[in-house]
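Hey, I was hoping to borrow your eyes for a little while. No rush at all, and the record is pasted right below:
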Amino acid sequence: MNYTVRNLGGVREIELRGQLTFEANDDFRKIIDGIEKDGITACVLGLDSLDFIDSAGLGLLVLANNTANRANVRLTLKHPRGQVREMIEISEFHTIIPCDF
């Protein structure tokens, strides 16, 4: 997984690319740490360039959501496509984390 971070005022936009699997754990935890420490009010995870997500990747999204809730940061998923969208819909993640399809 690769990612790009943009800060727009109190909103952080993170564009994820590649695959969100257990191998992305260390990099994704850096993203999570930034949610809690950087004083943002909202975080948008852009998923349109994410090609694949597995159960470990979904677990990382749960960790991000828990961290955001603790920090009073609004977390949103944006534009999942293909297999990633299917996984979010099948697992009903859009009922836990708001998702802009």
